[in-house]
């Protein structure tokens, strides 16, 4: 597999990872970097991935050949819960070999793959494997999504410590301005705080604003 797969995770379930993933894919494609998105494990759906649907709308493209082949949504579970519970309730284990094969195929066909996880870094994929440990195991560089809501500084700094502890490469922090808030006091202060923290402790990490997206 080419070294062109980036894992997208965030501070929690409502960080806006899917919006940010679609936005970044759209921008990379605009710049001539052929990019596809993939959902590691989709829960709360049957037969399709609503996150992939959202990616395509934001990217402004129809479903791809790879979507139709199932490569971008290799594992889908019906119950809207963390993957370890969703797979238990569907009475079907997660097929990590199937996921890896799909990622490898996308990696060969495209310049870049944005692989979106479910929820935050510590979400359990199985009772023995956390999302963050899967990222470390596969040696994927990380694109991390945060936002300006109250509590984001705490969640972000805790995540950064965990990332550093596991030796994960933090490629980019995406600061999500979606959804729109009227009072931007906390949002602006949080943005400045996180930017300054990254400059001090993660100087090689890129910081990108994800604008309010109109689908």
Automatic annotation (TrEMBL):
It comes from Bacteroides acidifaciens. GO terms for cellular component: cytosol. The keyword Zinc-finger does not apply. Pathway: Cofactor biosynthesis; biotin biosynthesis; biotin from 7,8-diaminononanoate: step 1/2. GO terms for molecular function: ATP binding; dethiobiotin synthase activity; magnesium ion binding; protein homodimerization activity. ATP binds at residues 14-19, 51, 116-119, 211-213. Its cofactor is Mg(2+). One of its GO terms (biological process) is biotin biosynthetic process. It is found in: Cytoplasm. It catalyses: (7R,8S)-7,8-diammoniononanoate + CO2 + ATP = (4R,5S)-dethiobiotin + ADP + phosphate + 3 H(+); (7R,8S)-8-amino-7-(carboxyamino)nonanoate + ATP = (4R,5S)-dethiobiotin + ADP + phosphate + H(+). This is ATP-dependent dethiobiotin synthetase BioD. CDD domains: DTBS (cd03109). The keyword Calcium does not apply. Mg(2+) binds at residues 18, 51, 116.
